[in-house]
Each structure stands twice: as C-alpha cells, then as structure tokens.
Amino acid sequence: MPETTLDRLMVRSREAMRDSREPSDDDLIGRFYNGDAEAFRALDELYRKRLLGYFLLRARNFAIAEELTQETFLKVIKTDAKYQPGSNGFAAWLFSIARGVLIDHFRRHGPGDAAPIEEDTKKEDPEHGESHSVVIVTPDSPVGEVFLARELLTSVLNQLSKDCAAAFLLRFYLGLTAEEAGRVLGKTANAVDQSIHRAKGDIRKSKSFRSIAEAFDVVSARAVRHAIHELLEDLSSEANRILTEEQRQRLLLLIGQDRRRGNER
Amino acid sequence: MKTMKKTELTPGDILDLLFCRDPDIRNAPGRHSLETPACLYLTRFSREAVEQWTEDEREHVRTCPTGYCQRMLALSWRGEHPPLAHLSQYARGEYPYPAAMEFHLEHDHCWRCQIVVNLLKKLGSLAGAVAVGHHEGTLAPLEAAAFAEPRAPVYLRQTSEDGKLIVTVVETDPPEHELKVCVEAPGCPETGGRVKVTLAGEDRTLEQELELEKTESGWRAQGSFGSFAEAVARLGQDWVVVAVLVESEG
C-alpha cells in the first residue's frame, strides 16, 4: 500500500523529536521479539497518541479510534509477517498496519459509524462568533475534503493581503488563539481579530470561494481541520511564504513549547 | 562562530502544532479508557499468551469490571478467528469469556464463526472433530476461460485442529462439473460415524450428511452438492465449509 504524506511526516517528525540517546524503534521492537514485554510498552508510549490521532482524523469517533489503536498494537504483537529492522522504518510499517485496520473497520461497519459531521449553527451569523470557521466539505468523502481544503487554502489565502492571510492561516488553519497569533505576528489579539474580520469580508466577496461553497454541503470547521492534516506540506510552504522570518521564528518557538508540554504529559 | 537558526517551517512542525493542539488527542489518556491497572497488558493477548494465562489472569479476564479484557480478546481475533476449541466451548455454554465471543459474533458480524457455533449448538454433545475451511475469490464458469483469465478449479482441503477429520471440497471436470466433498476421518471410532458437511455462503447454506465407510485406507465418505454452477450461484464467491464428525450414538 502506498504511504501517505501524513505517514511519512509522522515518521520524520518523530525522528526529529527523538533524543539520540533513546533506544531506536528498531532496538525496541527487536527486544520485544526477544521476549522483552517492557520494550513493547515503550513503543506503545511512543506511538499511542499518534495512532489515536491517525484514527481520530478518519473515524471521527474517539471510542472507535481507541479501539482501532488497540487493534493495531494487537496486530503488531501477533503479526506473522514480523517487522524487519532497517527496512522502511518501524513507524512506516506500523502505520501500514494501521491503514489496514482502518480499511477493515470500514469494510465491517461502513463509513456510517463515523461520527456525524455536526451542522455549524453559527453559520447564519457571519459577523459574530465562529462564522469564519464554517468551511465546506463533502460530508463523508476524505478525498473530497482534502481536495476542497487544498482549494480553500490556496485560493483563499492568495486573495487576501499578506497581513490578513497571515492572521487567517494562524487562526484557522493552524488553530492558534488570537493572543497566540498576535504574539507570532507582533500584534495585539485585537489587531488579529480585525485582520480576520477583513479577511472574512474579502472571502465572502470572493467569486471562487462562493463557487466552491455552492458545490458542497456546509459542515463544521472541525471536519476541515481533519482534512488539513493531509495538507501539511502545503501549509508549511504557505506559512513560509506568508510569514516573515521573525514571525516564523516566533511560531517555531510556540511549536517548541507545545512539544515540550506534550513530552511532559 | 555564528550559529544558524532554523526559521523555515517544515511539514513536521505543522504536524506537531496540529497534533499538540487537537484537544481530543492532547487530553487522551495514556491507555485505553476502559483499561484498569489490574487489566492484562496487550502483549498478554497474543494467541500463545492466551493459552498460557495464569489462573489469576483467567479470573481477571472473566470478571474484568469494565469489560476491557474480554474486548481485547475479541479484538485479537480480528483478521483471524477464535480457535475452534473456543467456539466449541462457547457452543456448549462453557466458554468463560462469553462477552468476547459475543463481540466477535455479533458486533464484528463474523458469519463464519456464527455458522460454526450454530452447527455445533445443533449437534450438541454428538459433535466431535471440526474442520473449517474458507473459500474466497471469483468463480467464473470454466467455459469463460476462452475469453478471460483461466482460473484454477476449486480445491479446498482442511484438517481439524486435532487431526481427526480432513475435508476436501473439489470442483470436478466437465462434463459432470460438480462440487464434490470428500471426507477422511482418521479419528472415527470403531463403531463408525457420520460427518455433517455444511457449505455456507453469506445468505444460503447447503448441507450433506455423509455416512463414513471403512476402507483399506481408513474411514472415508464422499458426496456431491450437484452442479457446480448452481451450487456457486447459491453460495456466492465467499463461503465456508464446516465438517463435523458426529460419532454414532451408543
């Protein structure tokens, strides 16, 4: 099965975060195959949340994501075709098992038990609240979501001024709060909100946005945020294009803090 | 010396930002939400480990307060099936982890195991060795071979876990072109016995009860399910064969 961008990035990201003094995945799985159950616990700790995230993005139901995560680990434990250290990397192998588990899940139950995509009730009030987060995707087609999210990312950001695009990217594609986006952009949270307000106005006027919007059902931003995970390369290049060097440094600082907090947990 | 500071954002940076901020993942516990400290760890659910559970482990799985352990047992069967001995125990109402089996049969809709369990329940204490084979794949008529990729004739051979029963399903050559079943029963007692053979597709079932005959090479029986084309039309492409040795009463 072909690896997705997300899988490759997960591997890269994990490798980048790992301290070189820690045992490698290959060491751990090798020790497990030799009967060391504790080594498996270490792999479990390293990959549990990533697997959970992978399934959550696709199945959209926490209980199912948890179950599929367990099933993936169980398959690693019992699999007849054992991982060959040094092949494509343990993470790539693990996520290929995860992908098989997900496909089997949808074969067994169909996509119907994915959590329903909730209607965004604030879409009627575009000037207030979360109206900006109303984005348009096909409800149950991941391919459609990714396609649309990519269209929105490139077409919307290209139409905005650099200032508005930066605020929009940080707030809605990268999930920062107004305060955090303000810190990255060297602005107040209020100024970020104003940029967003202007951005919304520009987007609403946009012909291409409307034509995309008309073609699909309106669902919550959450679904699109899931699809965005498939667009990491696009997002990073947009961020590098739109943000200044100084702003990027501040964003990287924030990511570093997130990582440290994540590791502490 | 001047140090270079990284300023380009990589997809990995974006990934971490998104993952770290997804509240569902951020707040996720480090283990399954039903798992208690007393629960068996995942590595104890491999097939080999299950057979070696200690008395304490068996007792915990049987009475696990959250149901986590039986759920994990059921998940460990996905992609394969519970051992036939477990299905037999369940059919007799003696299986110590019924929630796991019900999850496999009902939630996971394992029709292969449902068929086996129903058959074993019906035969009750008469059921002896059980052999279960699974056929998957297209069964285009052989006549189409001139126009399409020729396929190998059906040949499915399965031995029971205890080696007492061997069932073989074959597609015979034209012009008869039948679906035949042959049974060998090295485990048949001297008093003789029968073999109940069931071919079950997702919707339809074909059954045969064959009387074992003692031959020079042991206890054997064979039967026909009639025209191959008709049998396959009823069963579909995905079907199982279940053969159960039924020892003569008395």
Strands of the widest sheet of chain B, in order across it, are 2-3-4-8-7
Mean pLDDT of chain B: 84
The structural class of chain B is: alpha+beta
Give the assembly state of these chains.
heterodimer
User: What share of the residues of chain A does DSSP label as strand, in percent?
Assistant: under 5%
Q: Care to count the β-strands of chain A?
A: 2
Main features:
heterodimer; A: 265 residues; mainly alpha; Rna Polymerase Sigma Factor, Chain: A; 2 domains; 2% strand; B: 250 residues; alpha+beta; five-stranded antiparallel sheet; four-stranded antiparallel sheet; globular
Could you provide a short overview of the structure?
The complex is a heterodimer of chains A (265) and B (250). Chain A is mainly α and 265 residues long.
Architecture overview:
The complex is a heterodimer of chains A (265) and B (250). With 265 residues, chain A is mostly helical. Chain A folds into two domains: 5-113, RNA polymerase sigma factor, region 2, helix turn helix motif (Rna Polymerase Sigma Factor, Chain: A), CATH 1.10.1740.10; 121-264, no CATH class. Chain A has helices at 5-17, 25-33, 37-59, 62-78, 90-109, 142-159, 162-173, 178-185, 189-205, 207-215, 221-228, 232-242, 245-264, and strands at 135-136, 218-219. Chain A has a two-stranded antiparallel ribbon. In chain B, a hairpin with a 4-residue loop joins strand 5 and strand 6. In chain B, the strands form two sheets. Chain B has a five-stranded antiparallel beta sheet with strand order 2-3-4-8-7. In chain B, strands 1-9-5-6 form a four-stranded antiparallel beta sheet, sandwiched between helices. Chain B is of the alpha+beta class and 250 residues long. Chain B is built from nine helices and nine strands. Chain B has helices spanning 11-21, 23-26, 47-51, 55-63, 68-76, 84-91, 98-107, 111-123, 228-235, and strands spanning 127-135, 155-159, 166-171, 178-184, 193-200, 205-211, 213-215, 218-227, 239-247. At the A-B interface, helix 1, helix 3, helix 4, helix 12 and helix 13 of A face helix 1, helix 2 and helix 5 of B.
